[in-house]
Amino acid sequence: MAELVPIPFNKLLKRIYYEYERNDSIFDLPSRKFYRPNPEFDLSVSFCGNVASNPVGPAAGPHTQLAQNIILSWLAGARMLELKTVQINDKLNLSRPCIDITTIGYNTEWSQELLLEESLSEYVKASMIIEMMSEEQFLKPKTSNLKPQTVFDISVGYDLQGIQSKEIRSWLNSMRSASTIIDKLRKEIPDEFSSFRNFPFKTEIGNSITLSTFHGTPANEIERICEFLLSEMDFNVIIKMNPPMLGKERLEHLLFEKLGYTNVEVNPKVYDVNISFADAIDVVKCLQTVAAKNRKTIGVKFGNTLEVFNKGNFLKENVQYLSGQPLHVLHLALVNEWRKIFGGDFPISFSAGVDAQNFSDCVAIGLVPITTCTDLLRPGGFGRLPLYLTNLERKMKEVGAKTIDEFIVQSAVSDQQSAISEEQRAESKRQNRNSQFVISNSAILQNTSSLLEKSISNPRYHFKSNSKPPRKIGSTLVLFDCINCDKCIPVCPNDANFYFEIEPTEIHFNNIELTNGSWKEIDGGIFSVKDKHQIANFADACNECGNCDVFCPEDGGPYIEKPRFFGSLEQWKKWNSLSGFYLTNENGSVKLFGRFKEKEYLLSVGNDFQKIKFENDVFEMNIDWKTNKVIQASGKENCVIDLAYFFAMKTLLEGMLNNNRIHFVNVDFVN
Fold first, then answer.
1. Burial degree of 119 (CB within 10 A; 0-12, 13-18, 19+)
2. In the chain, which stretches have pLDDT less than 70?
3. Which of 150, 204, 346, 384 is least surrounded, with the fewest CB atoms within 10 Å of its CB?
4. Rounded to whole angstroms, how far apart are CA atoms 76 and 130?
5. What secondary structure, in 3-state letters, does 17-64 show?
6. Is beta strand 533-538 parallel, antiparallel or unpaired with respect to 497-501?
7. Cross-strand partners of 403
8. What is the pLDDT of residue 437?
9. What's the whole-model pTM score?
10. Which residues contact 194 (CB under 8 A, 6 or more apart)?
11. Could you tell me which CATH number the domain at 9-466 has?
């Protein structure tokens, strides 16, 4: 199943409430991995006239498409959320799998996988829930009264015609004034959060846009898109730039000769069709005038992924997009070149191989926001993000800085490669410029060139350090039991994989033979579950990206082999080529619909849990809940009923109804 289905607002809130209460986690992120700021440090930054409590966040992509993954980003510390790119074509047919982080990072993703109205709803839901959690002080240190300040950055693409369309205009206007959808969602707030039904939620979700354009979009079209967004739509604009702006000679010198990625083959057309560095400079200089006239910000982002040929066998497309460690160096080179032209104060957003080890260095060169994607797809998932910020706090303490501006300056001073002159300090004081502007600007330029040199020679960005794939142990996944490493849960951006608990069991059972209207027991087999801890998949939140398969030590893919639960009977029926289950409670009966490849069954039990009905379109039988003894069986034709399917479904039913762990399948059964 490669179709995402948004989780209803009330279900998201109920899960947050009960999972946090019972499991001390939210969407499978333990509270110990929530980021709690150190009140000694002010990590706040300004972005397009907005203040964010820190400069980190997920890049537009798999971590910012659904309400639950935006919330997970926020819980882990993200205060700048770059929403996944939307476009006029919202009915894409994308190949699966689409993400391969075996070594560095490759993907064949594109824009949003939801309809425009669904994306709007997801972003508004996320904004509302983040406000609710801020008020509830989920992340509040006991000694602090700080309330997190969060910025949503919108991302749109990909050409002038699409962005000027009635649908995208309407969508953008709704992001600026979301009162209608907020009022609709208020009615869905469950009793557990009833105090928020009249809460004054902010109606402007975002006022900045990071623009993504098609490869080959002419410079003059990019300029016209930005003029439209700045002037007519009244948004601040950040233009996402592409790595080929470095030029073929410089890019391949860095990628092949310096970093050693000779296994990568860049698609040669990218050097011809993408905007050149010189043209980008001209476009931005013209747009600075437009932005100033409209009192808006124009900036750039470095940036986009690099188009390369697919030499692997995991992704299916001929062309894929490179990210991760090598892209980090390429984009730093672009930042350095750009700053030679525009200076250290020009707004630059950054995304390329950012992780806990280099995030502080990115902060020290004045990048805002600093977004990450590939690193959050690795084991630990969103739980990797808090270390970005705690490392920054530690480094700020080491240099005696309390604010980001102080950290930028002190990083330059401690680097000892050049000094900030006393004349500059005196000039800054005379001009009374905010945050020591002259000093910071000089420090940013110094830190940028220094960081680029260090990164080029740093082995952690080189091929030799990034060529070992995750370990595979040779075994194959089946429906129940695995090695229980749990890697598949946090590496999923959408929290589609989850664990549940059952009692280990071994049952020697007989099958049932139906003959001429009568039935008898015949030899069956053994149904066995060895582990209490089991893994399942919630299909509505799974787009079959394949990331859990990459990191699972066993073969087969958790999203393929583990029990797949659908969020509605409609979805279960729609995807009838896939094995899967749907659990519901209706008319005083708990029902589990099950499909094992082409075999479909229904298991029903009354709320008294005395007798189970197990049936399909051929047979019907009643079984005692406690003893598993067959009470009655009948059928339309002579057949043998394999009770292995019954025991598998009963085991899954018991596991899903066990509310020791709260997840999307059982949250509606919790009260």
1. buried
2. 1-2, 139-146, 415-439
3. 204
4. 12
5. HHHHHHHCEECCEEHHHCCCCCCCCECCEEECCEEECCCEEECCCCCC
6. antiparallel
7. 42
8. 53
9. 0.95
10. none
11. 3.20.20.70
